[in-house]
Design goal:
four-stranded antiparallel sheet, SH3 type barrels, 9 strands, 2 domains, five-stranded antiparallel sheet, 142 residues, Alpha-Beta Plaits, Asp_carbatrfase_reg_C_sf, Asp_carbamoylTrfase_reg, 10% helix, binds cytidine-5'-triphosphate, mainly beta, elongated, zinc
């Protein structure tokens, strides 16, 4: 298998569902990052069969809401001085700000300069409730 070096400092998003890594890459706009970014896809995994993985070797302020929505099976590893200093299992965010857009055309958030806010409404299927108009939106992934 192709070997990718360990990094000195940055973030490794591991255990991304196979096929979802490229979406997360674009969602996080990693094409704009000034630093080394590696997207690996189709890595054999004993737990997942196959997985994707992203390494970001730079200071990067990860939008955990976005990561939680796009890669809820994942793990975020923070690397400093070549060591994993924090490992966090990604979860669906309970509250999301500014990432989703309400699909209700009459919602005030679509007419005024307000930050979108949603609360997690259900996990199977994943759905979020708009905090302004109570519209529930199912998220379709995969
Ligand atoms: N990693 C890295 N650079 C480092 C340290 C770790 O790129 N300096 C990567 C590893 O290659 C791995 C991920 O970060 O993909 C997590 O590292 P580690 O916790 O050491 O691996 P595992 O024990 O396999 O992780 P898990 O238990 O979460 O499966």
């Amino acid at each position: 298998m192709i070997n990718v070096s360990k990094i000195r400092k940055g973030v490794v998003i591991d255990h991304i569902k196979a096929g979802e890594g490229i979406k997360l890459y674009h969602g996080l706009e990693l094409e704009n990052v000034q630093g080394v970014v590696v997207l690996m896809t189709g890595i054999p995994s004993s737990k997942m069969g196959k997985k994707d993985l992203i390494k970001i070797e730079t200071d990067f302020d990860l939008n955990m809401d976005l990561v939680g929505l796009m890669a809820p099976s994942g793990t975020v590893n923070v690397i400093e001085n070549g060591q994993v200093v924090n490992k966090e299992k990604i979860r669906l965010p309970k509250h999301v700000r500014g990432v989703l857009t309400c699909k209700n055309p009459a919602c005030v958030s679509n007419h005024q300069d307000l930050e979108e806010m949603f609360d997690l409404a259900g996990e199977d299927p994943v759905s979020y409730r708009c905090c302004y108009c109570d519209q529930v939106m199912e998220l379709h992934r995969g």
